[in-house]
TrEMBL record:
Its EC number is 4.2.1.96. InterPro entries: PCD_sf, Pterin_deHydtase. It comes from Tautonia plasticadhaerens. GO terms for biological process: tetrahydrobiopterin biosynthetic process. Keywords: Lyase. It comes from the Bacteria. It catalyses: (4aS,6R)-4a-hydroxy-L-erythro-5,6,7,8-tetrahydrobiopterin = (6R)-L-erythro-6,7-dihydrobiopterin + H2O. Belongs to the pterin-4-alpha-carbinolamine dehydratase family. It is an enzyme of class 4 (lyase). This is Putative pterin-4-alpha-carbinolamine dehydratase. SUPFAM superfamilies: PCD-like. One of its GO terms (molecular function) is 4-alpha-hydroxytetrahydrobiopterin dehydratase activity.
Length: 119
């Protein structure tokens, strides 16, 4: 049994300064399939999710809330805002050059941050 999104949200990102192997592609695929909306990159080193916010203010509010969450967790995403309201977040564990459980913990927690979308 793999870790569910619910279980991931109860965990805390562990400090990572390297020295541990990245998740295997099987482990990463299992976790990704449990965390809605996140896809693994072709090279297997990054997970990414995209959103279209209602407007610029909604996009910035979301990014600021994600930044606060990331700081609390001590694990930091690449945040992208393109064309004023198109959002993408990428997660990787820089210290190990690949994916760790931290990326999936943060992804599951980001999924709980509200974002006002169009429509
Ligand atoms: C000790 C502390 O956990 C590390 O410096 C953290 C900080 N935030 C980080 N964020 C990400 N995405 N990858 C890292 O390797 C990383 N390292």
């Amino acid at each position: 049994m793999t870790t569910t999104a619910e279980q991931l949200t109860k965990k805390k990102c562990a400090p990572c300064e390297g020295g541990v192997p990245p998740l295997s592609s099987k482990e990463a695929q299992e976790l990704a399939s449990n965390v809605e909306g996140w896809a693994i990159s072709a090279d297997g080193k990054v997970i990414r999710r995209e959103w279209t916010a209602k407007n610029f203010v909604a996009a910035m509010a979301f990014l600021n809330n994600v930044a606060e969450l990331a700081e609390e967790e001590g694990h930091h995403p690449d945040l992208h805002l393109v064309g004023y309201r198109n959002l993408a977040i990428e997660l990787t564990t820089h210290a190990i050059g690949g994916l760790s459980e931290n990326d999936f913990i943060l992804a599951a927690k980001i999924n709980r941050v509200p974002v006002a979308t169009k429509g």
